[in-house]
Design a protein that fits this description.
Two copies of one chain form a homodimer. The first copy, chain A, is of the alpha/beta class and 412 residues long. Helix content of chain A is 40%, strand content 22%. Chain A has a six-stranded mixed beta sheet with strand order 2-1-3-8-7-6, with helices on both faces. The first copy, chain A, has a five-stranded mixed beta sheet with strand order 14-13-15-16-17, sandwiched between helices. In chain A, strands 10-11-9-12 form a four-stranded antiparallel beta sheet, covered by helices on one side. In chain A, α3 crosses α4 and α10 packs parallel to α15. The interface between A and B is large, with 88 and 84 residues. β2 of chain A pairs antiparallel with β2 of chain B, so a sheet runs across the interface.
């Protein structure tokens, strides 16, 4: 089955945004045993017409992203109606949903906005809980492929792909052997190390295909194959890399940590310097986090470390704010101040300024302590990255240290 | 001048790598006043032939990346020769360079490797100091556009673009006026509202082109045109939407807020419930944030609000933790506890649980107070979005409220 993807939007062609739709869809389709046979990016406006018309003759499934908004250069739905030879009709349900959404936010529903409620006759509306423009699906006709028209913003497109597009494609592709897929999400081990440890044995598992996905702070391994291949693969991966596996069910590190705490009825508090609140932030990204997280301290200045976490000013003077001693004192003080079961503390140099020969930019100390511990566990790490990547790496490393402690694994 | 880009490689279409060539080239070309009018990605192999042949009829410049390597599915140079109706001939200089490079690394120079030394007759070889495959340039003929064939690895492609492609394109484009680009970054106003307010008057500015870019929590407007058009556009946009303009120089909301505080030597502290540290987190994403930000409180539980921010337990009982009264008390308590010049506080219902008829999921109260104020400014907002989008919206809204206060603009 030939699947083509057309991405619309000036911003893609002038270097303003990266085309993440292509990577996302390419990756998700591969799991159905499908491949994108051609991808085209065109600016907003009439180029959309040419690209869609040409693609119609080449493929059985055409996915178009963007161009469904309210403005005059959003012409995807018009072109689809034209190619189908059908009229655009107002969908009452969509019009109502748009009106409700805007009224809830105290905004007006204009004629322009309501262009988004026009759909080609006979199209199936794909609900968009995250925005106003719905997606559209039109099954193949003699002249046209299956059309999936999807909104441009990733947070609107992605749930729609999961909820409507993939199930429909799975149905269209038939049962002809959609393979099983297992995603190993790791933390603390890179792609080359994963490859060195498991690629050779995995290559001997019959019918198994593997692939890597690299995220900013971790690498994932994807195994595609039948049930027997998956069992063999799991044995190999667990043996070599068991402690680094965060999940095989898609859960993030923060979801795993919150679940571990929740299961045992425990709580954690945070004391953050260089991460500036980012650890608390991702913990509270998890629904239900309030059961395990009650408070966090962002102690960016030294006097905040002393005032809120009882870190002696002398200790900061003697060892520096970025030191194992101060990280340990922050963690102990956080446990004392919060009354929680565990405390995480971090102090480091995010840069671009503030580094020294002994402690260059990228140096960080992570401390974790639990009620009843003789002393905090402290580790020194080095993440010589840009500021945002540094913060993200420290945040995940701190959470992973707690994960390992909760699971009684080796603490790095 | 129509410029098309063809990217070859299976890895682009199965989600293995992001197409950074497109963003890199799109961005660099825009600076020459050129735009990529279409970009196509195809797998290695015969699809390259179709895509190149089709593009020849549509553009004056065709850039192809990848498919110049030694293996049998690297057919870019063969297709170019075919389209040009010229033979492939061995380039002695390239063959020698390949041989030298391989010998230096202790490898043999095979017949397969030497395919990379075959070039269409009359092509200009673009040297590749970072790899074996050279780039190729063939000027336009009656039937074919200017061909630039470039190697796939970014560290080979990028220097070649800077050293050969851009200078050549600059020469081809002539002096015909490289346009100016102005990006208006907004907060608190959506794409439809921007369009309703400025699209009609902007459409009457001669030679002005506009486009929108929607980010998760804000919309941006881009204006392209000459100096006169930019002056006229700025007048229109400022008159209708002045208070919503965050920047026209690419700076983010948090960068603008940190700069405003820094310029006046002032500091801010944060008291966060539903955002869980996210406000502190994005403030500290800005280099130099430590000059304006010293501490933040993440008071997720009620006892943390009382213990750290002196919010009376009675007040929470009477009005609920999510109320204007509690937001105001958190802000005042934060100012008192921190000794900073400004305090931001937020309390809301991120969901998915915890909503009521009176205060549904998505309800949030934002309070901002400055030293010397009679009382905090409190606003109630409603962001009925998923949890992460809710947190991001509240975070940006809180910062924007401070921005407006610092600039003496209307507080929403």
């Amino acid at each position: 089955m030939r699947v083509e993807l057309i991405n619309t939007g000036d911003e893609l062609l002038i270097g303003r945004v990266v085309n993440t739709h292509l990577t996302f869809l390419g990756d998700r389709l591969l799991e159905l045993g499908l491949r994108i046979t051609r991808q085209t990016a065109v600016p907003d406006g009439s180029e959309i017409r040419d690209a869609m018309a040409e693609a119609c003759g080449r493929c059985e499934v055409l996915v178009v992203t963007g161009g469904l908004g309210p403005t005059s250069d959003d012409i995807t739905r018009d072109v689809a109606a034209e190619l189908l030879g059908r009229a655009l009709v107002k969908d009452a349900g969509v019009a109502e949903a748009i009106g409700d959404r805007l009224r809830a936010r105290g905004r007006e529903c204009t004629t322009t906005t309501l262009r988004q409620a026009m759909v080609p006759e006979g199209a199936t509306v794909l609900g968009n809980p995250h925005g106003t423009a719905p997606g559209l699906y039109v099954p193949a006709t003699g002249q046209t492929p299956h059309f999936f028209l999807l909104p441009g913003p990733p947070r609107e497109l992605r749930p729609m792909v999961e909820d409507y597009v993939l199930p429909e494609l799975r149905r269209l592709a038939g049962d002809g052997g959609v393979p099983e897929v297992c995603h190993y999400k790791f933390f603390g081990v890179g792609e080359s190390e994963i490859s060195a440890k498991v690629e050779a044995p995995l290559s001997e598992v019959p019918g198994l295909q593997i692939g890597y996905q690299v995220e900013p702070t971790n690498a994932n391994l994807r195994c595609i194959g039948d049930r027997d291949a998956q069992v063999a693969a799991r044995e190999i991966v667990t043996r070599s890399l068991g402690d680094y596996i965060i999940s095989t069910d898609g859960r993030s590190l923060e979801e795993v940590v919150v679940a571990l705490l929740d299961e045992s009825g425990q709580t954690v508090a945070t004391a953050e310097s260089c991460t500036g609140g980012s650890i608390a932030d991702i913990i509270t990204d998890v629904p239900g986090a309030s059961r395990v997280f009650r408070r966090g301290f962002v102690t960016y200045a030294n006097e905040a470390k002393s005032g809120l976490l009882f870190v002696p000013a002398d200790l900061i003077c003697e060892h520096g704010a970025v030191s194992g001693q101060v990280a340990a004192a922050m963690a102990s003080g956080c446990l004392e101040a919060s009354g929680d079961d565990h405390a995480i503390a971090v102090t480091g140099i995010a840069g671009p300024g503030g580094g020294s020969d002994e402690k260059p930019v990228g140096t960080v100390f992570v401390a974790v302590v639990s009620r009843g511990d003789a002393a905090p566990h402290v580790r020194r790490c080095f993440f010589p990255f840009d500021r945002l990547h540094f913060k993200a790496s420290v945040t995940k490393t701190a959470l992973d240290t707690l994960r390992r402690k909760l699971l009684n694994l080796d603490l790095a």
